[in-house]
Amino acid sequence: MGRRVADAARGSTKKAAPARPAADFGLSPRGGAAITGAPMKILVIALAGIGDALIATPLLRELRANFPAAAIDALVFWAGSRELLTGNPNLRRIHQCNAFEVGPPAFLRFILGLRQERYDVTLNTHPQSKLEYRVIARLIGAPVRLSHRYDNASCLDELCCTHLLDQDYTLHSADNNLRLLALLGQRPLLATHQLEIFPTDAETAAARAIAETHQLGARRVLGVHVGSGKTKNLRMKRWPLENFITLIRRLTAERPELTVLLFGGPEEREENARVLAEAAHPNLIAPKTRSIREAAALMRHCGAFLSVDNAMMHFAAAMRVPKQILIESMAFGPTLEPYGRPYRLVPNPAVHGRNLDYYRYDGKGIRGTEEELRRIMAAVTVDAVFAAVSEELDRR
Hints:
By secondary structure, this protein is an alpha/beta fold. Helices cover 35% and strands 15% of the residues. The strands form two sheets. It has a seven-stranded mixed β-sheet, with helices on both faces. Strands 10-9-8-11-12-13 form a six-stranded parallel β-sheet, sandwiched between helices. Strand 3 (71-76), helix 3 and strand 4 form a beta-alpha-beta unit.
């Protein structure tokens, strides 16, 4: 078939347990009640971006706490999401398939193949506003299918899902996910929640070696990520690369005690190369990390992190970087804050609190022309970001 599909437990020969009928869960349409009996099979569907898969990790931990005997699996789209979730002790198995790589027919065969798992419950995590994500849950065919009700909701959502919960723009996406527990008659059992990444000992050691090579322990370290999401038109929330270059030149010139680490994957290779060329300085480094989790482990050596709202921002929150500075994009809001972490927002004067006018969870991209969106991001000045970064670096 030639499909490129990864399964963290592909070699398992264990026969799938039959799914129990929906009536066994005591669930009435559009209502929640306690699930009784064990074992049960749960599939967490997190097919959106890599950062969105990370946002699902507090829910994974709560599902494990509420259903300790359950088999909990995840379904993701991106290979990076699979890598990010690998090693998570709350998961039994990770299913991954990229429709862009394998093509729609092979992707459909892959999804239909998951019916053989006979899952009892599927949960579509927030924010997955495209209807296609709910259609996928319907095709997998668990008797109980949970999701949020988004701005583009229609009767098709009712056909695809057995239980829908109104999303809440005032809550973080991780907390919107935790609210799904109520549809299962459960509640959060843990006192606190955080995003979680589990680097291996080897990845942690590799990150430590990079830190030692560049003597980061004796320096003040600022991590920088110049990118943003690439699905829909999320690239338009990037701060202009020219501004990053000017900022980094100024930081390295005026703060000799500071080392700037450029983070990024293949999507930022060209941008990082340009930054290195045009802002060249001994204290500007683009470390070569071999995996997402190794990059996350390296963040433990940063005292501060600068970005727009993107996956790397969530990585920094998961690794508990002490200080985070965010350049406000038109798509930013409470659902996307660094979860459970303090941060400094550099306000965007062109947005002025109208974020929901530009971006909502309705299956569409950011509203506005390319020219307009570029102009909005350029409204945040280098002086404003430099002042915010300097104040955070100096704050004890």
